[in-house]
Design brief:
36% helix; five-stranded antiparallel beta sheet; six-stranded mixed beta sheet; single chain; 3 domains; Rossmann fold; alpha/beta; 27% strand
Length: 362
Amino acid sequence: MAQPPQSIDFDKIRNSSDGTFKGLVSSGFNEIVGNNPYFAAGGGLMVLGTVLAVARQGVMKSSGFIYRQLLVDLEIPSKDKSYLWFLEWMSKYKHRSSRHLSVETSYVQHDNGSVSTKFSLVPGPGKHLLRYKGAFMLVNRERSGKLIDMTSGTPFETVTLTTLYRDRKLFGDMLLEAKQLALKAREGKTVIYTSWGPEWRPFGQPKTKRLFESVILDEGIGESILKDVRDFLNSGEWYRKRGIPYRRGYLLFGPPGSGKTSFIQALAGELDYNICILNLSENNLTDDRLNHLMNHIPDRSILLLEDIDAAFNKRDQTDEKGFNNGVTFSGLLNALDGVASAEECITFMTTNHPEKLDPALL
């Protein structure tokens, strides 16, 4: 049933306590609101909505404050070395709960030359729970939907570890265990690195060290090079005192199959060094990137430039528009022996045709 129209008592308003315009408006407003059920109901809903919104904001702020006070996060980006260490460690850790796994396929070369396939099940994208030294940790592996690693074509990833603030010191213990596990897998083996964009990454699984005596060269050549390299490694202070660049280079030449690369592998195994292989013919390799890579070679590593004669057909490689295409000859010389070249660096170059090399390189 329709409600009758509400009337306003102007006499009551006129006799308001203060007799002012403010009192007139106040009395009129109270008269309308107090006697209008629709207005009263709408106002009640408005007030209720406002109260709920304020309460929600208060809860969100309180939960955020509590989160910051009680919990701590650790982010491990995929470009960091410890990223792969942690995933490998977690794949072998028993006290974890993972419902989403990813497979990583690698190839293992055995001493007899045969190759087998190895499948590693690592935590996939999503959330996982583990218990480490009595503390629970939430592991969240996220994959970026926008950023992609152009060198590998895979999206960037981040692993975020969350635990109680009081247990934050366990992060360091966990990463140290992951590192030690990775190093243990490389004991007695040689790691082969290749360039991926601006950084060095392991190529395949570490290889069993090759015995130095297994490579047959002309009498005394292998032993002479080994002695020279060891003398160089023990003479760092001598180089620094005299202001001489602390680097050493060797050129191995001979027909294909004469043992050049095999000797370098055996030498690295004898010295307990790894090998960084750089392909100078790669189109995406520029002078700047070459300099960056040579100045960021992993510790205890030999730099190997294979088939150096095939890398340059002429001193300056430019396309029809005049732009540099790959590494220039002058860029290589600067990287090997320029002002910005790396210190404490051992470089080996190999060639099948030494007569084709530019004299400036020798």
